[in-house]
């Protein structure tokens, strides 16, 4: 396992669930880790626990990822406290609470779901990536989902958001081509968290993806072991790390594309 000592990570949605597991895994590998979420008490407690468990430097910064001024101030505070960011993980976000078809959705809640992933990922990338470009060093990870590639009718906002976020990764990676700054999609599988516990489709589900599998992939990305995957999707719990490191990735492999209806499809 590669040492990440001396590197700095910023993880959004760090107070619970996947983000909480991830900050501890990155800190255990020697990274200084900043965590961001809206609820300050819970976030502070989480980051203090991580510091106590790992001995790493941690920093808690409360912010809403959809608020431009808060995001810019948060990134400035992280850089001031820990130094330039080597790894940005856009993990914060929410899901359709009502689980109804699109036309029955509450417009404000629908848009909040989309904003949490899309505006959040955009604002964080916009605040962090320019400094990565200047240093010609850095990696961005966006949390994807099965719904990045296939919509579910009762989670229309989340499906839109996760698909858009995957396009954002692709656009970012393409714009960064030729540099040593890279962007990745990581789908975590189905991890037992407050989000999945709130979703009707996972009631009674038991075959959870261990959060360690998500952390393992993102840690390997942070260590530069999966740079060939920039602009593409990795899936925790399914993708084997040794295979991912070695595989030759063809044109558009693990990227969003239309599937042609056959040889004669003019869009094929
Ligand atoms: N769990 C899964 O199986 C699964 C599967 C596919 C994809 N994902 C994705 O993985 C990521 C983490 O999911 P999770 O299951 O760990 O969720 P979770 O347990 O509900 O945690 C969400 C985190 O995001 C923060 N957050 C939410 N909205 C925010 C906002 N506007 N600004 C700042 N922070 C915000 C929350 O804290 P505050 O509420 O205090 O802000 C919390 O720390 C999400 O992007 C999710 O879509 C999860």
From TrEMBL:
The GO molecular function terms of this record are: oxidoreductase activity, acting on the CH-OH group of donors, NAD or NADP as acceptor
InterPro entries, A to Z: NAD(P)-bd_dom_sf, Sc_DH/Rdtase_CS, SDR_fam
One Pfam annotation, family name?
adh_short
Q: Per its UniProt record, what PANTHER family does this chain match?
A: SHORT-CHAIN DEHYDROGENASES/REDUCTASES FAMILY MEMBER
Which family, according to UniProt? Belongs to the short-chain dehydrogenases/reductases (SDR) family.
Protein name per the record = NADP-dependent 3-hydroxy acid dehydrogenase YdfG
């Amino acid at each position: 396992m590669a040492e990440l000592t001396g590197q700095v990570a910023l993880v959004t949605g760090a107070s619970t669930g996947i983000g909480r597991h991830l900050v501890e895994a990155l800190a255990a590998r020697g990274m200084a880790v900043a965590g961001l979420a809206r609820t300050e008490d819970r976030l502070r407690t989480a980051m203090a626990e991580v510091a106590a468990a790992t001995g790493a430097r941690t920093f808690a910064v409360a912010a809403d990822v959809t608020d431009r001024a808060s995001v810019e101030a948060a990134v400035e505070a992280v850089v001031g406290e820990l130094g330039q960011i080597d790894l940005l993980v856009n993990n914060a976000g929410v899901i359709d609470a009502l689980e109804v078809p699109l036309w029955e959705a509450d417009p404000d809640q629908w848009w909040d779901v989309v904003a949490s992933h899309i505006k959040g990922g955009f604002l964080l990338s916009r605040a962090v990536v320019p400094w990565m470009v200047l240093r010609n060093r850095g990696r961005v990870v966006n949390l994807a989902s099965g719904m990045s590639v296939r919509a579910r009718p009762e989670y229309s906002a989340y499906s839109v958001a996760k698909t858009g976020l995957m396009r954002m990764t692709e656009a970012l990676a393409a714009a960064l081509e030729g540099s040593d700054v890279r962007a990745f999609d990581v789908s975590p599988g189905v991890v037992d968290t407050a989000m999945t516990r709130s979703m009707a489709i996972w009631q009674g589900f038991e075959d959870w993806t261990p959060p360690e599998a998500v952390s393992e992939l993102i840690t390997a990305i942070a260590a530069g072991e999966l740079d060939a995957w920039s602009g593409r999707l990795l899936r925790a719990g399914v993708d084997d790390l040794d295979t991912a490191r070695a595989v030759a990735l063809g044109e558009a492999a693990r990227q969003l594309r239309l599937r042609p209806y056959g040889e004669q499809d003019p869009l094929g």
